[in-house]
Write a structure and sequence with these properties.
Elements: E1 7-11, H1 16-27, E2 31-36, H2 39-52, E3 58-62, H3 68-82, E4 87-90, H4 100-122, E5 131-136, H5 149-171, E6 176-183, H6 197-200, H7 207-217, H8 222-234, E7 242-246, E8 250-253
The structure holds nicotinamide-adenine-dinucleotide.
Length: 266
Amino acid sequence: MHLKDKVALVTGAAQGIGNACAQALLEKGCKVGLVDQNAEAGKESKDNFDKQFDTQRTIFIPCDVSDEGQLKDAFKKVFEHFGRLDIVVNNAGINNENNWEITVQVNLISVIRGTYIGLEYMKTENGGNGGAIVNVSSIAGLVPAPYQPVYCASKHGVIGFTRSIAGASKEKNYGVRINTICPGYVNTPILQTIEKEENMGQYLEFKENLQALMKFYGLLPPPLIAEGLIKILEDDTLNGEVMKITKGQGIHFHEYSPLPTPSDKQ
Ligand SMILES: NC(=O)c1ccc[n+]([C@@H]2O[C@H](COP(=O)([O-])OP(=O)(O)OC[C@H]3O[C@@H](n4cnc5c(N)ncnc54)[C@H](O)[C@@H]3O)[C@@H](O)[C@H]2O)c1
């Protein structure tokens, strides 16, 4: 996909990985709907982008992605404001093992909902232009995370859903490619939550273990995740892929064995 003049909606765009993704999309010539529940940080990030890019190229929409009405409204606003929608980055996510139901709600249910709403706007059978959806999972979506079991489950869910809906999109000729990005530890404010009882609950006692893991694996810079996003968007061959980004191996793809199908010889 040529990114110039395309319209993207990025959730969790006020800071961290989402903000870096918005920056990279703007640098490529996209217009970006910045969606985030943190209104103060969201406005600050819009102001920051206005210093670098034409003010018309971004819109900030305060929205809690876990609220169905607010999420639908955010998509509607972006579509009506820019007149089209080509790219959705379902990035907003939290780490909360204490109030774990909300982790499933934000990290998995809202990503599923964001994908379905995005498809409604973009799929060709609805008169859309086609496009691309990228759902942000984590390396914790591929391996166990003993001190963050629900976060881990939510991120495994994102991968399973995204690979599956990518297959459905292909079979139904939606014209929308759907992929997942799985970063290792990234240097963003979410990492501070491992020190808080309100986030870690019964797993707070493992804080030092998590800190040791981060030290061992190293922290990735947010722009590297944005680089991975741009690679996925620009390569029209990618659908249902799981991109891993780690300190050791950089940007690379998870390899799965091909699934046997009924047409395979026994
Ligand atoms: N930082 C890491 O180490 C890391 C590693 C792998 C995956 N991830 C994933 O990357 C994504 C972005 O994380 P980050 O590191 O940038 O975190 P972050 O906390 O720095 O940023 C997350 C953003 O999402 C927003 N957000 C949270 N809940 C929301 C909601 N209900 N509605 C709307 N906005 C909401 C926050 O306000 C914030 O601006 C998350 O899905 C996270 O799980 C992060």
